[in-house]
Amino acid sequence: MPSSPSHPVPPGHPVPPNPPVPERRPEPVAVGPDAAERARTVATRPAATVCAPGIQGGRVLAHTVTRDGQVLLVVSRDGDLATAVRAAPGQDLSTLLMVSDHAPVPLRCPVRAQLWLSGWATPVRPADRRTAVLAFAEQRPDPSLLDVGRTAELLRLDLAEVVLGEAGAAADVGLQEFLAARPDPLAGIEAEHLTHLAADHADVLALLAGRLPAGLLGPGDVLRPLALDRFGFRLRVERRFGHVDVRVPFPRPLTCAGQLGPAVARVLCAARAARG
User: Taking the model in full, what pTM does it have?
Assistant: First the structure.
């Protein structure tokens, strides 16, 4: 039985229609990684140095963020950082790890991003060393792991702060967001694809240039591949003074590296159609 309105309509008056149902708009599609995903991707890059009290730009043999979010460092046992950690009260030393993300192709400004991971470095206990080394090797099977316990020391960095620097800006990344994020699935194959694109496929770059906003690429400008991730290509327009970075997106974000070939084919097909 239909329910009666809360405010009865006087006799002879028309019954007002039901209010329209609000239109459900589709969720906006992300066109690039968020700061946490980007930070986890930058953390996979090999170029890193450390700073600690009395240590500026110390060398790291290798580093990684394990699947469960541990930040691990391999350093020389006789090096400045390992020595300072052993001498610190409780073997707990305030430390900053700086990771740089370099473009794999020649660019005037090759550093794409920097990641600052700050916290407290402490030695991994001998009882936990084997498990930690295996977790490290799962993410990065670096040869220096073979020297852990002999000429190399394995340290754990207990995170306090994560900052991502990119495109001239710095962004704080929440610890939980950083630990929950995963690196881009193309991070391990990006360099190979970009160097191949830059060296052997000027035709593909010309097609991608056709997907740029009108007027962005001017006379004398040079278009170079900058980055490749699950959201698409990033290209750099190098000008006489400065540069501009722009994204050419895939139709939808990828979820694994196996989807890269079809996604690139769709982008190039659209570029050829637009040119025709």
Answer: 0.86
User: 145 near 133, Cβ under 8 Å?
Assistant: yes
Q: Identify whether the C-beta of residue 211 lies closer than 8 Å to the C-beta of residue 270.
A: yes
**Cα 218 to Cα 243: distance, rounded to the nearest angstrom:** 12
Distance CA 56, CA 4 (A): 77
Task: Give the residue among 167, 274, 273 at the shortest CA–CA distance from 214.
Answer: 274
pLDDT digits (tens, 9 = 90+) for 157-201: 999 999 999 988 999 999 999 999 999 999 999 999 999 999 999
Neighbours of 116 (CB within 10 A): 17
Q: Which fold has domain 35-180?
A: Pnp Oxidase; Chain A (2.30.110)
**Calpha distance 186→256 (Å, rounded):** 7
Backbone angles phi, psi at 147, to 5 degrees: -95, 0
Delimit the CATH 2.30.110.10 region(s) of the chain.
35-180
Rounded Cα gap, residues 239 and 219, in angstroms: 9
First to last CA, the chain: 62
Q: CATH homologous superfamily of domain 189-274?
A: PNP-oxidase-like (3.20.180.10)
Per the CB < 8 A criterion, the answer to whether 265 and 249 are in contact is: no
Q: Give the residues across from 120 on adjacent strands.
A: 94, 158
